[in-house]
Structures are given as C-alpha cells and as structure tokens.
Specification:
By secondary structure, the chain is of the alpha+beta class. The chain is built from 23 helices and 20 strands. It is globular and about 100 Å long. Bound molecules: adenosine-5'-diphosphate and magnesium ion.
Length: about 725
C-alpha cells in the first residue's frame, strides 16, 4: 500500500506535462510594474506633496502626516487601476514570518450604494488584533492593542493572485505602550544610531560635509526544491520543514557534480518565473545557480538599502514558496532539511555608506592610506570581538543549530576574516608601524587570446562566519529561513557602539596634538591589542581552531541555541542596545522570551512527529516485513528448507531498540517543571534532541533492511534526485 504512494508519486513526476509556454518579456516591461514607485508618485501627486515624500524617503526627513490623505487617494487609485479591492498593512513580527491584515476599500453609502474609500488615517495607521503574536510578555492579552504604522521608506506594491489583487503597505508594528513588537523598528533605529555615530567619526576625521549614512544589504538565499508528490507524503517535511528520518542515499554530494552544474530545466523554468515576479515587485534578482547539495539552489538580488532589502528578502521567501507550489515543488527554506548533506544558509552581505563619502568599507587601491576605511574596519573588528556572543545569538534557532556547532559551515565561534591584504595591514598596525599593503597584481592565463585581469587583493575563506569580501562584510552564519533584520540590527548597533568608542579615543588623541594619521593608527593599535583575538584567517572548521579559539583566544563557542540565546540577557548587550536607543531592556528581554519559546516549541513539534511517524509508519512497516519473513522462514522449514534468519534477527533487534529509545523520548517529552526558560532550553538541546537522534539511528537502519515495497516514506534518493 505505502509503496504505491511512492510509485504513484514517481509516475506523476515522470509523466508531468510541461507548463504552458510563456513568451519571455523584456526587463523594462516587467520592472517595478507592481510597485507604487517614486516615479508613479511624481506623476500623480501635487508637486509639494511629492517633494515632501521624496525628502522623507531619500534623505530621512520627518514625514509630514498632512500629506497622507493625498497620498492615500493616489495610492488607492493606482491600486484599483491594477484591480485591487483590498489593501493590507504588511508587518514583520518577531517570528521571522511576514504578517498582513487585509481590509477592503469598500464603503457603503446611506442610500445602499458602495464607493471605494482609503483615507490618510487608514494609510498611516492600522490596528490588527495582534494579541496572538508572540510578544515576549510586552503585552498581556487583556492589554493587547497593537498598531501598524506606514513605513514610507519602503514602497507599497500590489500582490496578484489568480483572481484578485491586493495593495500591500509595509508597516512597523508597535504595542499600545509604544514598544517595538517587530523586526522593522529596531532595524530603522539601528540604522539611525549607526548613522549618527559614523557621522560623528567622519567629522572628527576632518570631513566638513557628511550626508546621513545608510546600511546596505545583499542577501544570498539558499533553498531546496522537492517534488510536492514526495513532500506531501512526508509529515516531517510538511510540519517541521525537515526530514526527521531518512537513510543516506548511496550517492550524495561527494562528486561535487551539482554545484554550479547545469540547472535542471524544470528548475530553471521555476527560477525564471520567480525572477519575473520579483522584477514586477521591483526586486533586483541577479544571481541564480545550483548549490552544493543535490536539489539545492541559490538566488541573490543586487544589494539595496537595508530596510528595503529586508522587506524584499521577506518577499523573496514568500515568492519562492508560492511559485514552487505552482510548479509542483515544495520549496524548503529550512537550514537542514536533509541530514548528511549540505545545509542552507543566507549570507548577509553588509556595508555602510552615504552620498558624500561613498562606501565606507571600500579599501580602494591604497588601503594603507585610506584612514576612513581602516577606522571603519577596525570598528567592525572591535564589535565582533566585544559582542561575539550577541552575533551568535541573533542567528540562533532550533533549525540553524544543525549548521552552526554541527560539523558544517560556518562554525559557532564568531571570528572575522579580513583576507591576506587587509589582515596584513592590521598586523602592521598592531606592531606599531603602518607601511604599505601587498598589491594585488594581475592574473595571466598563459594563453595569448585570454585577457589579463587584476586579481582581488584577498582570497575568499568559506569557513569564516564573518568575512570581509572586498568592499563589504559577509555574515555567513545567518540561517536560510531567518529574517535578515536581526543580524542587520546587531551589525549596525555594534558598529555604532564601536564608532562611538573610536570617536572618543580619536578626540583624545587629536587633543594631545597628534596628527590625523598618527591618531588613527594609535587608536587602531589599541583595537588590535584588545580585540585582535577575533581576527582569524585560517580554517574555521578545523579542530585546532576550535581548541585555540576557546583556550588561547578566549572566544565563546556557543554550540546550541540554548547556549547562545542567553546572550540577550548579558549586561553589556543590554547596555549596548539601550545606549544606542535601539531596544529598551524590556524590548530586548521580550526578544529573548520569543526566541526561546520558538526554540522550545520547534523541538516539541519535532519530538511529537518522531513519535507519530515511528508508531504509525515505520514500526508497522518493519513488523509487516518481520511477519512476511517469519511466514516464509516457517513455511520453508515445513518443506525442509532452512533459510538463514539473520535478517529477521537484525530487523527485530532494530525494532526493539527503536521502540526502547522511543519510550525514553516519550517519557521526557512532556516534562515541564523547569526552574527557568534557560533550563528548559538546555533540556531540549541535551536530552530531547539526542533521544530523537537515537530513535532515528534505528529507524534509518531499518530503512536499509525492510523490503522496499513496504517502506512508507519517500526516500532521500527519490526526494533529492527526482525532478
Ligand atoms: P558570492 O560570490 O559571495 O556568492 P553573490 O554574487 O552570490 O556573491 O552575492 C553577493 C551579494 O553581495 C549580492 O547580493 C551583492 O549585491 C551583494 N553586495 C555586493 N556589494 C555589496 C556592498 N557593497 N554592500 C552590500 N552588499 C553588497
Ligand atoms: Mg553566492
């Protein structure tokens, strides 16, 4: 019976009809057609209103609420011209998800007729009944008012479904008492804090004109595609987003034949559909390729201002999932859907800059004389060292634990990779004299017809969680399913803190009469003395590093989320966020509560799935096979044929062990009398998870023994290789 589900799924995949051919469109026809862009506003708004809005969006000026009525009407007219009947305030609760509350434009008149209506007040402010969103104790349900407020700096857009269109308005989400309940407010605040500190330092360094500074983000998203026919027969994939069982296939990723391989046609058709939708939403999709694991792929857009990039990143995840369904796939954004093969991350590329100084993390051709770059880079080094545990905590989740801290990319130890050229400069600074940087040189191929080109001044290092990649830092420890906001907030805020510290030191050095260069070098020398331990250019996966980092350099190795999340409660982290005006102590505390609860809930769901799948699928299949074997062995004996019973013995042994482990798991699953949340998390990490793994070991062994025609679950081989 069960095998039939699998063979049916295979038949449905192989007999799948191609989707209707669509004529490819030119990018100019697609670009931002579904976005209420500045250009569209300029065309339909009175000049004064448009100027005021543009000033807020481009230069961060205060929003003039007086213009809201005019903008609302224009936005509504545009949305209705696209077919919209409803609008939605879109917000980003602390769960990594995107949330939306929909309301109609409908208004009924006294005479029973209807008109459409959308006022400035409705645009600017909404009140979703958000009492069910996790808020970490900020609001009790009897005081549950939550407001959404229009974020004018992130453009409104329409989302199309088969038979309707909705106007979507990016918003922030706050409590009645004004506390941030979402991921957007802290991001906006962290950007402002970083801008203020950076402007201060740039002024101390002699710049008279310094425009506001913005952080930028370009996020590379990894994901898996599994045919829906298989995924729908895997309760674990459907509810937990990852396989809780599954024997490794005979062939995995050992040939590296998938990485950057030719994209399978069905997947390419899917990708092009995704890109078309993203272009219409004004999201600059740029890169697509196969990833390391079979069935794994990547998409990356061109970087944008962090706030917009973050909203766009949420949309990318939504569009990937939606489009996958239309193509008969399930898109898995989980960090580790399949044990034993590559997991998925989201590399967050981050830089800061403005219109007057440009990208402050760009070393230029002569980094040794680029004091501004060295100062900002030094600030990052100090930040990563001082707040390493925080950087680990903002990427902590039950699912990301399978990457960080497991034997796979990147390690849970937070260090910075600078590349040989820049690391060399900082070593020179540490030893007290800053000379010249190594030059990059050119690349020759030894073939006349090939061009000569300039080499990058530093190689890449894939094993570092936090790497300088030429003109930005790449935070690689971020999980594939996460919002990029948390990591961006942390990076902006630690940069603000370090820049302020550096600003103080520079002022004091300059006050003593040092010249600019001496002052900077002296301050950075102190940075290297105190924080150079975080700079590491070697192999981040190696055992030596794990030993050296902890024992000699005093860096934390927080393997699980249970170890990492308490960083939100450290005094220096509380002070960091409070001083920068990014998160009050209560807001920070609420984040710990929400993330801890998510961690505990995730593991609870997985444990329940383990019990369900063993009892209702795996155990029945194994005993059915035992029954078949014992009948055959008995019947053969009757006719005088002796069949070796070692297979039956082994299956019976694995069934017995599996059920014994399952019994142990069931005994501890519902324990709830913990001293505190920290203890509960540790119990999940160190007792429940290992028992789930123990059950799995026996179940996977059974998958290798039980007759294929009895095995109920789609296999790794089927899910990873059949497209
Ligand atoms: P990789 O070689 O790291 O895989 P990709 O091209 O896949 O590179 O992705 C790199 C990402 O970094 C893209 O989103 C790109 O737009 C972004 N990026 C490039 N320059 C910057 C910058 N200065 N600041 C932030 N992000 C950047
Ligand atoms: Mg990439």
């Amino acid at each position: 019976m069960s095998h039939e589900l699998r063979t049916q799924a295979i038949a449905q995949i192989t007999e799948r009809l191609p989707l209707d051919k669509k004529a490819p469109k030119r990018i100019e026809e697609l670009w931002a057609t579904d976005v209420f862009t500045l250009n569209k506003m300029q065309a339909c708004l009175p000049k004064g209103v448009y100027k005021s809005l543009r000033n807020t969006i481009q230069s961060g000026g205060k929003l003039d609420v007086g213009v809201a009525d005019v903008v609302a009407t224009a936005m509504k007219d545009w949305a209705i011209s696209k077919g919209a009947l409803y609008y939605a305030h879109v917000f980003y609760p602390m769960t990594n998800a995107t949330a939306e509350k929909h309301d109609g434009f409908i208004a009924v008149q006294g005479d029973g007729t209807v008109i459409t209506e959308f006022t400035g007040k409705l645009l600017v402010q909404g009140e979703p009944d958000g009492s069910s969103f996790p808020n970490g104790g900020i609001r009790s349900t009897n005081a549950a008012r939550g407001y959404t407020a229009w974020d004018v700096t992130s453009p409104a857009y329409v989302m199309e479904t088969d038979n309707g269109v909705t106007l979507c308005i990016p918003t922030v989400f706050v409590s009645w008492t004004g506390e941030a309940l979402d991921k957007k407010i802290p991001l906006l605040r962290s950007n402002a804090a970083m801008s203020k500190a950076a402007q201060r330092v740039l002024k101390i360094m002699g710049n008279s004109e310094v425009a506001p500074i913005n952080s930028s983000c370009g996020a590379e998203q990894e994901y898996f595609l599994v045919d829906a026919h298989f995924a729908h027969n895997r309760p674990d994939l459907m509810l937990a987003g990852r396989t809780l069982f599954g024997k490794a296939p005979a062939k995995g990723q050992q040939f590296d034949d998938h990485y950057f391989g030719v994209i399978p046609e069905r997947v390419q058709v899917f990708m092009q559909d995704v890109e078309e939708k993203l272009y219409r939403l004004g999201i600059p999709a740029k890169t697509r390729h196969n990833e390391v694991a079979p069935g794994q792929f990547e998409i990356a857009p061109i970087y944008e201002a962090a706030n917009v990039a973050s909203d766009h990143q949420q949309l990318i995840m939504t569009i990937l999932r939606l489009t996958a369904k239309q193509h008969g796939f399930i898109c898995l954004l989980h960090e580790k859907p399949f044990a034993g093969i590559n997991g998925s991350g989201k590399h967050v590329n981050w830089s800061v800059g403005n219109s007057t100084q440009g990208n402050l993390l760009d070393p230029g051709d002569n980094p040794e004389s680029n004091l501004q770059f060295l100062t900002f880079c030094g600030a990052v080094i100090r930040g990563v060292h001082t707040y390493g545990p925080l950087l680990r905590a903002v990427v902590a989740s039950a699912s990301n634990d399978h990457r960080l801290g497991a034997n796979e990319a990147p390690p849970a130890i937070m260090s910075v990779y600078l590349g040989t050229q820049i690391e060399g400069l900082f070593q020179q600074i540490a030893s007290g004299n800053l000379g010249a940087a190594d030059k990059a040189g050119t690349m020759e191929f030894g073939v006349e017809t090939l061009p000569t080109f300039m080499k990058d001044p530093g190689d890449r290092n894939r094993t570092s969680p936090f790497a300088f990649t030429g003109n930005r830092f790449e935070f690689r420890a971020v999980g594939s399913s996460m919002s990029v906001s948390g990591p961006l907030v942390a990076m902006n805020t630690i940069l603000a803190d370090s820049l302020n510290w550096i600003g103080d030191q520079l002022e004091s050095e300059l006050g003593k009469g040092s010249d600019q260069r001496t002052a900077v070098v002296n301050v950075l020398k102190t940075v290297m003395e105190k924080h150079g331990a975080a700079v590491f250019g070697g192999d981040g996966y190696s055992e030596e590093w794990h030993k050296m980092a902890v024992e000699q350099r005093g860096l934390a190795n927080l393997r699980t989320s249970a170890d990492a999340l308490p960083a939100f409660k450290m005094q220096n982290v509380k002070d960091l966020f409070a001083n920068a005006g990014v998160l009050s102590n209560a807001e920070l505390e609420s984040r710990f509560d929400v993330y801890a609860e998510q961690y505990i809930n995730t593991i609870a769901v997985e444990a329940r799935l383990v019990v369900q799948m063993v009892k209702t699928s795996i155990y029945p299949a194994a005993v059915q096979y035992l029954s078949d074997l014992s009948h055959t062995i008995g019947s053969l004996k009757d006719i005088g044929v002796e069949l070796d019973n070692s297979v039956a013995q082994s299956v019976a042994g694995n069934v017995t062990s599996m059920m014994a482990s399952l019994g142990k798991l069931m005994d501890v699953m519902d324990k709830h009398d913990f001293a505190d949340t920290e203890a509960h998390m540790q119990f999940c990490a160190n007792t429940i998870r290992p028992l789930m793994d123990e059950v799995r070991t026996f179940a996977d062994a059974l998958e290798g023994e039980v007759a294929n025609n009895l095995w109920p679950l789609p296999t790794y081989q089927e899910m990873l290789f059949l497209k």
